User: Fold these one by one.
Assistant:
Number 1:
Amino acid sequence: MTSAIEVRGLGKSFGSVRAVDDLSFEVAEGRVTGFLGPNGSGKTTTLRMLLGLVSVTDGTATFGGRRYADLDHPVRHVGAALEATSFHPTRRAGDHLKSVALASGLPLSRVDETLELVGLTDVARRRVGKFSLGMRQRLQLATALLGDPEILILDEPANGLDPQGIQWLRQFIRGQASAGHAVLVSSHLLSEMEETVDDVVIISQGKLVLQTTLADLAAQAGTGTGMRIRTPEITRLAEVLNAVPVGWRQVAPDTLVIDGATPEWFGPFAVQHQIVLYELVNERGSLEDVFLRLTHGFDASHTVPGSGQSAPFPMPGGPS
Amino acid sequence: MTAIVRGEWLKLRTTAIPWVLAGIAVVITGLFILVYFLNHGAGGGGSGGGSAFVPNDWGAPHPGYPHTTTQLRDLVGRGLTGYIFALLLGVLIITVEFRHKTATTSFLVTPRRWQFVLGKLLMAALAAIGLAVLLLAVTVVGGGIAVVAQGGSFGSLLGQLGAVAPGLILVFVLFALLGVGVGSLVTNQVAALIICLGWFLIVENIIEAIWHGTVKWLPTGAASAAANVTAGRDADFGLFNWWQGSLLILAYGLVFAAIGSFVLARRDIT
């Protein structure tokens, strides 16, 4: 397993603001690496430094040892989809791709191939200004794929995609990895990526928090499993639970969570004590919880930590 | 570089900019021809106002009145005033990339930014040649109709093309390069347009009014020299000869482009 992308001690200062600091990680061939961090954590700046769009203050960011600008045919090695706004609004989608293909010395047949690949064949003649955000994302992806590169860099590609689009994107990214390509895909939502990525690089406030495999991260998350119970008899349930050796905590006036419990254990237990249940949920500690814990819920663009999506109830002290 | 210019040409022709600019330039040149047509011979020596030679407003006002070589040369060279559009074309060709953030994609394709600027310079030069040829066609066809309607010879008009065309094409190319140079330095499209128009419509006139001697050093004076046309200028101003004028505009354009490339190479595209 060789590294397609190597980032070594990368740093970037915008005036007095340290956007990225001493960041090092690698992206392996044939694997999908999730580049995760809250909004404003330096993901986009890092990707733009990799691609030579933003100058590097310290360290290096290279593809097989060479900087992007030093690659002979950059778009044939590295495909990048950075933001959904960089199109001329009155240019037709097909013409946009053609201009990139011509300037890169690629055969024009690639235009139709990539349009087909991202499902935009029918709107190739339409002006990009009329495109939805999701269609722009697909067009960005098509642009990145024109040179049939072995390395793909995708910045928040799921933004603006509908659920079907996200499903399609996942399959697409997995397909790229299966073909032996290296994919670096950034996101501020781990939940969006957990079915897609093999490895994760987590950053927060411009610094590396963790580089590991998704399996490792999942193992960490697994420690938080339990049962979430909603019942009108919460006081009595608490009493009977205190008589058995399990940890539990109340998370709402009528709800509590029992650590490490399984439905197979709790079902008969509830019958035995004749407790009325309104809701019985197998609570798997989500990767998002781990992610939020690792990044301290820091989000430069919001004052409230986290999105609340993965934690339906406030959990004092958090799962342990 | 050929590939980059081919890409640039597709980018250029798939936006409205060149067509709108060319359209305005054609209309203005057409108006100049109309003015020539209506004024030709009017108030001139022999014909006298209100004579039988003026049948109505839209007919041939002064049939048979001779067209001097200078007049014919000026007529064919009417398109020269369109050089300002070559300049704007140059400015827009490069600043459009920043206005619509297409620069990100362009820099991914062409990561060496001096190559990006060079591609823009070449594209602007080619587009300027196209614009110049278009306006020459307008003056030859439109002017030809006017001259023939007034009893002149189309052949003698066409004969002036050789004297006018090289200078006009040269000036257009040089001003397009100047436009790219300015645009590479001032990437904000509106600001770049205001600077260019402000300079040529206001600032130059003020400088000329204050220091007559500087005219030959200004882009417009250099353009007049390059086109070998000193229309409307006092001979005392003393312009450079055509190649000195050309080198001067070229120098302006390339100095801007060089500084622009230097600045652009260090600029973060966020």
Number 2:
Amino acid sequence: MGMGIRLNCRVLPLFTATLLVACSLAAQKTHDEKSVRQVEKEVLRVEEERDQALQQRDISVLDRIYSDQLVFVNTRGQLFTKAQRLADLGAGKVAYFSYNQGGYDYHVYGDTVVMTGRTSSVVKFQGRVNRIPRQFTNVYVKIEGQWRLVAHQATPIVDK
Amino acid sequence: MTIVFRQLEKGSIENMEMTTIRNSALLAILALGMTSRAGPQDAVKPESDAEIQKEILAIDSQRYEAMQKRDMAALDRLHADGLVFINTKGRLLNKAEYLEEVRSGNLKFLSVDTNDYRFCIYGDTVIMNGRANSVVEYHGVVNKRPRRFTSVFIKMQGQWRLVAHQATIIADE
């Protein structure tokens, strides 16, 4: 009995501390998961806004979403700056006949999000119509409180 | 937040990465609710843009060397656990799939030649764009066509790791 009490006196604080740590870790994990889901929602909202702006050729919205240092690589492996991309869109050199993309996946690293997806949109660029399904990566970074697209690259899916 | 857009003339190599590993000390801090999430704005010690570019090129060089030697331990260290890798066929691979392609010999770099780099630095996130003329054998088919790639590196617990890579054949060459 006396030994049991002595053991409890030693074990109880350790048990309590362990329990507190476990509870804190669980709470932190839940908080992190909620934060990640919230970030994914925010990025998806911006992505959908971008999609609309591309179809409507709304350059002012795209100007706000695109980072000034945007790196844009299209399905032909051509590299464009933000200015070049917006100029092509503004001049009607890029035209979407249909818009269809999805299959999104996200990897959240604090204020950076790597988003992947597939598209089968039909788009005309430099006189060529592209209907080939392609896999893309969009990288968003939160800059001064706003998610902005800093990189985009698309690659044709040539085999399954 | 530092943002830089630069172009380098010539160089060699490519990319890779690694992800989140928390040690017990960090877990203890988390448990006490005293930590903050690592992010692009959490740089502990400011580094110059030139230093960062140099570090990224060195990491990329290590990655290619590790691929050529099939050094799986190094590749594991250099790639983030959440790696997304999209090859020139538009196939999306995760870290395990990508490393298995290297380990099995399905993916071999017969030569490495990358250049025309551009860097955009957003705190602890670096976008590296470049051109590759490397000769690659993938599932028995040799690919010599030039391609444009984008690699994304993030500094995690003091180490740069590749979190994303995508390559696209330059169609008009």
